[in-house]
Amino acid sequence: MPGKRHSEEQILCALRQVEAGKKVSEVCREMGVSQQAFYSWRRRYAGLGLQELRELRQLREENRKLKGIVADLTLDKHILQEVLSKKAWCGRRSGSRVPHKCESRLQKPLLRTSAGAWTL
After folding, report:
1. Is the pTM of this model over 0.70?
2. Fewest CB atoms less than 10 Å from the CB: which of 35, 41, 83, 114?
């Protein structure tokens, strides 16, 4: 699927041309889009000014970054919970002086790989 062909400013300009009295079919032909695409643009961007459009774009970008951060932190939380549950499942008695075989493995620090996954 190809990416966006028209910037939001171009879309806004096309909407303004139609509001000024130009025919929809004419504007669509000039931009090389279908009328259906034009009407979906009109539904999406109706009533927005250029400044509001820029703010909307900035908010969407910030939202995308925050969702990525939340996803990373959620993954970290699940990994740490898994490590803690394995440590609790070990069943080592508190008075024992000899470390259990899983304890030596769990004492290693968690390292993050280049792909972003955690490893022991």
Report:
1. no
2. 114
